[in-house]
Here is the input.
Amino acid sequence: MAEFTKAEGKKKVLRREFLTGSGVALAAGALAVSATESAAAVLTQTPAPTAKPSYEASTGYLVYDSRLCLGCQSCMFACSTTHEGVANPSLSRIQIIRDAPSFTKYPYDIVMSVCRQCVSPLCVQNCPTGACHVDAANGNVRRIDQSKCIGCKRCINSCPQRPHRTIWNSAKKKSTKCDLCADAPYWSQQGGPGGKQACVETCAAKALKLVKEAPSQLDVAGYDVNLAPPAKAFPKMAPKPAPKEGA
Amino acid sequence: MANGYAGKILKINLTTKEISRLDTAQYEEFGGGTGIGAAIFWDLAVAPGDWDLQDAFDPKNVISLMTGPLAATGVPGAGRTSICGIAPETFPTPLFHRTGMGGRFGTMLKLAGWDGVVVQGRAERPVWINIINDKVTIEDAKSLWGLNTYETQGQILSMVGGRTRFGEEWHQIGDDYTTARPQIVCIGPVGESMTRVAALIHGSGVSARTGGFGGVFGSKNLKAISVMGTGSIQTADPKGIVDTRISHILGKGGAAAGTAACMPCVNSDRKRDSYYGGESMCADQYWFMGDLMKGADVAIKWGICTWATKFGGAMENKVVGAPALFKGRVPMEPGMGWYIKYLYELGVLGPGKKIESHPLPMDQWDKLSFREAFCDAIARKIGIGADLAEGTLEAAKRWGRLEEDLNSGALRFPAYGASWHHTLPGVDWAYSYILTSGDPMWHGLMGVSGGGGFGGGPSTYTAEQLVEMMAAKVVPFTGDPLMFSNSWKGEEARKTGIYSEHKAKLVAWARRYNEFYNESLSICEMMLPNFIGRSANSIAGPSPELEYSYYQAVTGNKKSLADTIEIGRKIWNMQRAIRVMAGRHRDNEKFAPFMHMPGATFMSLGSRPVYVDGKWSFENQDDMYLDKAGVEEFKTHFYKLEGWDASNGWPTRKTLDGLGMKKVADTMASRNKLGV
Here is the structure.
């Protein structure tokens, strides 16, 4: 699963990998639109975007190797812990979905759901308040300003990925999304596109990586890349002594 | 609620259909996991005094599935589920036993807002328990009864979360969302029919194997427990958890990385894990049949305990002093499957033989179809299956072979019907067999050897360097390197070796550490402790400081490392009290005869440090066996060290009061079970 090519493009493309490429909000499978009162008020006053604007590309992208992933959820716990201060996979901006107990076979047993920092971010485009924005101060990562978010869920419903990569925080009634740890209050390292990400650093399988160049936006192959298991992923056991014969 | 805990424990009485909650806070002094499970068992099953604790299938039996405070916090290997209750598998009588399983059940249970589930009573008809955050229901399992464990989980999945397309949608629960699937623990036909060799199965092969708790589920008409959760766990130091996690991954101090959900773990293989029977560790190797998970697949599907019914071992070897009739093929950890083949080759078991093998096709013992027939016969208790369903030693007893085969070691079951598992020459392991309820399943000190062993390590250090390094780690018994001497011959064994006061300290420390960190914080014991450094320039591994750091970061508890080991002592004594109330006495704590004869030790992994005539060295101990009188001397040392009555092994009031367990002491005194 290296660079996307035309030849690879003929491979079976799972439904979840298929992108519409459209700015139209996708209803199927997404969160139901249940805007709060304040959000509804804003929505009635805010005209939907009529033209597709262009955005500065992010200077950082998370790529992953879904064959290498262990499905251990370390990245998910690290994400919610560093951003929210609590352990809660539902609040994690990276979702590792493992199909136990349906027993889907490897490598289709795990789906890695990572925000793509889209070159054309529909979440940004469709946000009625500007809460979801391109953060020029942090390498153009796509972020949601919590103080401006009104909980309308437009970013969630407009995310073209399945499952959607924008996350709903029911306690705060606001949306969040991956910011490459640019704003992670419980992360003791420098985050953002120029720094380190908690998910990458806590991945024991080395199945996550930050890259600078925008991956192909055409399908999942641009992001689900070969991160080749390191030769010594884990310390080797000491050699066992040879079995002894008799006394 | 305290950091790391969900704050409440789910209590379900299947007889009355009452669903209630216990405050975790009232049990926090016992840490979590088995510690809390044992304390609850005391309150619900022992203290009332209306049950003799003898029948594991009695509705009064209380089975708990508990997590620890580190579960669902991102601490690697800490998402395990600890299970305890009266276990049907032990021999000759059911004993209080604890076991555990990895997987995601424990993590999901915490996220649903529960530190554990406690089940008592017996449902009138088959049921399953459905937990979705705070909503808990007892569901009809009529359509699930008789299904294998894969079918059961698949059916429940379709009922609980089946409309959500895997990998494409979020599943809505109230105002919250999750991409996760329900996590299910269930039994197969072998558990439904209340055999003594049934496991609890979770996922494609994670299971709680020892103890036979699958039969306890069966006796309660409980087919499965399913859980989905979307909640949060508060921790004291979120930054500290992630920082510790990263230093752990980077191998600071030589640690191997672990994973957050306890599965798939670093020792595992995801490709294998996604196949039926594959989500497993070494236990299922004894059922593997070469090609992927054949064999193990059958066992997990039927819900049989792969450990109790092992067909072979990871290794087979000649054992020093073993009877010639073994033909040089003594497996490391033989079980029921191996034993019936042994009897078949002896000519005493087979069609028309003294032990009738019907319906098992013994001539096809090495075929997959035999494994199916084996499980079917046991599940339906037909023919030889009726004997096997009662466990290996009970079957041997019915066949009149128990004494002979325990003497020869053909039945390599050191105590209480638990099969041989490393056991010797690591005597702390062997002693734990008789002091608990069989196999302690704790590899913590296996690496304390020369030339490898579990945990590996450079073989360049001397025995003296090794024991001095270890002597600094075993708080509060620091400064006594003789704790690690494995001298087993002559006067040295009694003075400084395996029968000495020094060894009693090591076993006491091992039990305390294990009960707190592995059984109650529920950290995978294959991951931590890790005492031996893997780096070229350091002999010392990261334990116990690493696990202590995790504990502090999650809970914010100000307890010292010594304090945590003391909690382990409290948990250890709570289990001791339960066992005493169920009949435990010094006289019961004995090894099977073969442990006192040449051939007791299987090939050891590495050489052990020994102290002889004032000098340390490494010694190959493949020929070790135990002296009966020496073991009795050890027991006396151990009981005295623990503050137990040396004449019967019962805890004294002073000991229990000192641990804050006055109520336990009062109950024991009222039933004449208190030591003096």
